[in-house]
Amino acid sequence: MKTCLASIIFLLVGLAIGFYAGNRSYHKHMTDEAIARMEEQSESYDAVMASFSTRTISLIDAGQDKEVVQLLSYPIASYYYVYGSSRFTNEQRLKLRAIIDGLASSNKVVAAQIAETMTNK
């Protein structure tokens, strides 16, 4: 009887230790995978910004100022559409929206791009 009871206790202790070790291993794996994905996203964003900046600088060097303004107006209009008109806005978004509104009032290309983005999305 004692042998049977001891076997059951040791079996339960072994199962608990195995569950604990397996669970910790799983969480470590998931954390490592999440970190790797964040690094990939960061690199992807950096690559897009480098490409965008390279194109912008080449247009500036070529003296094509209107094309530069047009190129730079796309992300401004996109931000304005997504965050500038959100009802879940904060102080930082309101400040940037005011800056964008000021720019749009003095720059026809930016104003046109914002208007086009607002109507097409």
Topology (SSEs and partners):
Layout: H1 2-61, H2 65-84, H3 91-106, H4 108-120
Helix pairs in contact: 1-2, 2-3, 2-4, 3-4
Salient structural properties:
121 residues; 0% strand; 2 domains; mainly alpha
Quick structural gist:
This protein is an all-alpha fold. It is built from four helices and no strands.
Overview of the molecule:
With 121 residues, the protein is an all-alpha fold. The protein folds into two domains: 1-49; 64-121, no CATH class. It is built from four helices and no strands. It has helices at residues 2-61, 65-84, 91-106, 108-120. Helix 2 (65-84) runs antiparallel to helix 3 and helix 2 packs across helix 4 (108-120). The chain is elongated. The N and C termini lie far apart (75 Å). The mean pLDDT is 83.
Q: Please report the total strand number as a whole number.
A: 0
Strand content: under 5%
Report the principal-axis shape.
elongated
Q: Please compute the radius of gyration using only Cα atoms.
A: 28 Å
The poorly predicted ranges are none
Largest sheet: none
Sheet/helix structural class: mainly alpha
Give the end-to-end Cα distance, rounded to a whole number of Å.
75 Å
Note the run of SSEs as H and E: HHHH
**Helical run tally:** 4
